[in-house]
Amino acid sequence: MSTKTRGITLVKLGGSVITDKGHAFTARLDTIYRLAEEIHHSIHDCDLRLIVGHGGGSFPHTVAQKHATQRGITGSESCRGIALVQEAAARLNRIVVKALIKSGLNAISIQPSGAAISENSRIVKWDLDVVERLLDCNLVPVVYGDVSIDLGQGCCILSTEEIFRYFAAKLPVERIVIGSNVNGIFDKDPNIFQDAQQIPLITPEKFDQVLCFLGKSTGIDVTGGMRSKVAALLEIVKRKNSIKCSIIDITRPKNLEDALCGRKIIGTTIQG
To answer: CA–CA separation, 26 vs 221, rounded Å?
Structure first.
């Protein structure tokens, strides 16, 4: 099948997995290199057309909180915050891209802050022709949570899920896999409550029922935590109900590879 007709899988490496959110600018290198190997195996063994995304974790979120970058340009220091957030996000991205290249993949960084225009924290313009051409050359684009110029408030923070929302509307995306540090969505925080029950399926009709269960991420997260992430995924499946989204635990070895290759694992599915 031609690369131009094969569907695209979007996969996110969560910031809480690849960094230590409790310590600023701390990457979990062993985890990043393990996940890079799993992505490499899945692409070659299961013939995937893949775009990798990752969260910022303790890199840009730390700087963004200090400068309130998510609130826009509010004062004389805001532009300094834009520069520092972009640098921190790009720093983590280079670590991820380096790991993917070392695994054997031809990974290439895609910088959202240099390409996307947003309005009220939503992407409204981004020419994705370059991304499509990279895929056709069997390269693996790697996007990431980043700062963006915003027509409404001057600047904003783009989550990986917001980037995926835009990509899903513009590209032939078939599947989205969100890698987290838990097995999907629960009715309580599973890191605190032993009796927490997993929610295996979320549909647009069920969203209000699970809304109260969705809280913020552990550690600093200026993109709104799990609630905003699930809301973005639900918007994707509402607009294109052929897309299947999964939230899985990628701290467990082989889980990401199994999920990408379509093998059954525990997690939460979001679909229309």
So the answer is: 15
